[in-house]
């Protein structure tokens, strides 16, 4: 069944952090007919439920998540939840709303893959144009863009979060005034896309009521894309789960680091041996899903003393530093202070999490199809700690986190260390605890990476165009040539802004 009632110039599959941006920007041209397809609910800004809008509710719920988990049992002894938002705004509707850009050295590593136009000097004007913030220096910030970015203050934070920042300073970390400014090495309250307690996702910021009234923009919610339709090697539309086919002059996949590679592979673009295993005709041989990256995440949790057990707001502060193995100008470790924790699990009714992460992991994951059926969860593997450098650096982060845990004024407000626990001492015990409990930071990237003509691992070019076919692009975190050392959301939005200017 082909939808002939309306033909579209552009069909965007996925209305998340990138897709909502693309729909808004591309429909600014009133002669361009744009269709945005979102698998989850397509809420308007006014009717967005609290589970999506309330910044203190992180991770969504079963109705707004894809329900994915990884197949890492062999290497880690357990799988890892792979949280991805299934709602207009995507994961920007369920994340912790951290709004920190990638660093210049991150873009320098992208350039090493042969892509042009993505240096920090190239993208800083785009970061500035997309944001509105009242703080920071004009050289680094925009004031009138659609995406709000606000600096949380010490006074807004909980007593224990303030104590975390002060204890980190006592451990030698500098106070950073603006992570999106000139210097990121140190500790500070978070920079967030939160306004008056509301998480402003891309569906709210970019798809305002005025934008939705454009006659050339159509938004459909609760619609899942199965595959791209081709005539020869030209994309001519998409096929939905259920069989409906929608014609398009151009198709853009913005289904995320799991969804976009899965759609590509179901469409016949991917590793040929894998596609043939599932009886999928091969259109283009491509290394789809072979360079998946994710930040490993470990929770150093402390029970708070009853007099300091306030846990709101949940997102508080972050420490960004370098390991002993970091390269030049790299900051490869995070310690993220949050109250994203069930207080009932604390013996005192309150807790603070110092979550440690290696933000420039060397281990590569993968994504494959378990079935040709689009309703079947793909096979995701993070392969955390496959490269032992990642484990060594994670242990450095946890040791620093525990040092802060024993430093006043933080030590004055905590009752006890819950994980790994005081009985875990020494390298062997700590390594075992980290491997047993490692989680993901929910920052997957690089499963459909950009690259220059000499990069054999690339799937798309510097503008997101899929190699070997016409009329098909991928624009989301999956096309990052390598993972960045920051939370990925703001940089994903910037990617969509940048590519939309070229279309």
From TrEMBL:
Family of the protein in this entry: Belongs to the GMC oxidoreductase family.
Gene3D superfamilies: 3.30.410.40, FAD/NAD(P)-binding domain
Cofactor(s) the record lists: FAD
Pfam family, one: GMC_oxred_C
Keyword Flavoprotein assigned: yes
Keyword vocabulary terms for this entry: FAD, Flavoprotein
Keyword presence, Nucleus: no
Positions of the Glucose-methanol-choline oxidoreductase N-terminal domain: 85-108, 256-270
Entry-linked PROSITE patterns: GMC_OXRED_1, GMC_OXRED_2
InterPro entries: FAD/NAD-bd_sf (IPR036188), GMC_OxRdtase (IPR012132), GMC_OxRdtase_N (IPR000172), GMC_OxRtase_C (IPR007867)
The name this protein goes by in its record: GMC family oxidoreductase N-terminal domain-containing protein
């Amino acid at each position: 069944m082909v939808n002939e009632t309306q033909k579209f110039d552009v069909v965007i599959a996925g209305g998340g952090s990138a897709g909502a941006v693309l729909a808004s920007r591309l429909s600014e041209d009133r002669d361009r007919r744009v269709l945005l397809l979102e698998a989850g609910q397509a809420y308007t800004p006014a009717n967005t439920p609290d589970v999506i809008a309330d910044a203190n509710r992180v991770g969504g719920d079963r109705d707004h998540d894809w329900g994915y988990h990884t197949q890492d049992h062999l290497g880690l002894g357990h799988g890892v939840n792979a949280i991805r938002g299934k709602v207009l705004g995507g994961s920007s509707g369920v994340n912790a709303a951290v709004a920190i850009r990638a660093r210049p050295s991150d873009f320098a590593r992208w350039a090493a893959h042969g892509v042009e136009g993505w240096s920090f000097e190239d993208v800083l004007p785009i970061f500035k144009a997309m944001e509105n913030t009242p703080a920071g220096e004009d050289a680094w910030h925009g004031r009138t863009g659609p995406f709000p970015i606000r600096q949380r203050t010490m006074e807004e934070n909980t007593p224990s979060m303030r104590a975390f920042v002060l204890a980190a300073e006592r451990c030698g970390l500098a106070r950073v005034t603006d992570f999106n400014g000139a210097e990121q090495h140190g500790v500070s309250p978070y920079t967030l896309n939160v306004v008056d307690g509301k998480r402003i996702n891309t569906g709210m910021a970019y798809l305002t009521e005025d934008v939705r009234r454009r006659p050339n923009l159509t938004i459909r919610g609760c619609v899942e894309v199965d595959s791209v339709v081709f005539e020869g090697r030209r994309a001519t539309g998409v096929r939905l789960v259920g069989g409906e086919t929608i014609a398009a002059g151009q198709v853009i996949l913005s289904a995320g680091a799991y969804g976009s590679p899965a759609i590509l592979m179901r469409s016949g673009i991917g590793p040929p041996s894998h596609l043939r295993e599932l009886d999928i005709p091969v259109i283009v041989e491509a290394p789809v899903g072979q360079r998946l990256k994710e930040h490993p995440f470990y929770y150093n949790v402390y029970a708070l003393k009853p007099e300091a057990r306030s846990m709101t707001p949940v997102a508080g502060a972050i420490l960004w530093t370098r390991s002993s193995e970091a390269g030049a100008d790299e900051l490869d470790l995070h310690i993220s202070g949050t109250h994203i924790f069930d207080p009932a699990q604390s013996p005192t009714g309150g807790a603070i999490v110092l979550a440690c992460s290696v933000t420039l992991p060397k281990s590569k994951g993968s994504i494959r199809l378990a079935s040709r059926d689009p309703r079947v969860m793909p096979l995701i593997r993070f392969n955390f700690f496959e490269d032992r450098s990642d484990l060594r650096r994670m242990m450095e982060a946890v040791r620093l986190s525990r040092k802060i845990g024993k430093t006043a004024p933080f030590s004055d407000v905590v009752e006890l260390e819950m994980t790994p626990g005081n009985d875990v001492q020494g390298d062997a015990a700590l390594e075992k605890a980290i491997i047993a409990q490692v989680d993901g930071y929910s920052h997957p990237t690089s499963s459909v990476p950009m690259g220059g003509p000499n990069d054999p691992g690339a799937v798309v070019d510097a503008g997101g165009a899929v190699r070997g076919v016409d009329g098909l692009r991928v624009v989301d975190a999956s096309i990052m040539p390598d993972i960045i050392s920051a939370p990925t959301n703001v940089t994903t939005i910037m990617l969509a802004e940048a590519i939309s200017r070229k279309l």
